[in-house]
Prior knowledge:
This is Tetraspanin. It is a multi-pass membrane protein. Interacts with SLC19A2. Interacts with NTRK1/TRKA. Pfam families: Tetraspanin (PF00335). By secondary structure, the chain is mainly alpha-helical. The protein has helices at residues 3-40, 42-48, 62-86, 89-115, 117-135, 140-153, 168-173, 189-195, 200-210, 212-242. The chain is elongated, with a radius of gyration of 23 Å. It starts with a helix and ends with a helix.
Amino acid sequence: LSPGAKMGCFTFIKVMMILFNLAIFLSGGTLLGVGIWVKVDGESFLKIFGTLSSSVLQVVNVSYLLIVIGAILLVIGFLGCYGAQKESKCLLMMFFSVVLIIFIAEVAAAVVALVFTGLAETLLTGLVTPLLKEKYGVNDTFTHIWNVTMTEVHCCGLNNYTDFNNSYFYDTHGSYPRQCCDMIEPCNSTLAAERDVEGCFKQILEEIKTNAGVAGGVAAGIGALEIAAMAVSMYLYCRLDEK
């Protein structure tokens, strides 16, 4: 290619890099804002987006998840956008490194999810079950999220009704949440064992397996975008040496 064509190609890719990362930056800011909103006023958020209550995101603390993802996207978007605009080799290399680390972490998480599903369940149980015992019936937002999730997904606790043994809710009410007995109250241990309502983790895992093709396609698309972003940033980085 002639020097002019090379320069035109460089400029085009630079502009695309800026626009792409500007979109990432704005998306990150939006997620961060929503995360803060959920943290401050979770009940209003659930009233508006109640149809999403069966999502896997309801099992964990949605606000912190959105805040973390939003912050990461803000950093990536800023490094990519500002680095391309200022033609800064340092920022472009930082952008490449951050995206590469995220890509490696995603691949590792995918391998763990595929190979060590049982281990993932054990770890999640170790994290979420204590929260159910301590916060369910105490924290209004946490309790509401789990009530909506258990009602919509037709599940009880993370594994089953025994997650509420020795919990604040059981010690206070002397019974399990009504969802553990198919909405029959009072929900005692005998009725809960008889109904044997499955835990939310198993239900959500089944839903994920059912939609594994869609999830895999989305994951592959995200991976392809990350590889493309790394390739473009490295192209700009190398072309700056020639300039």
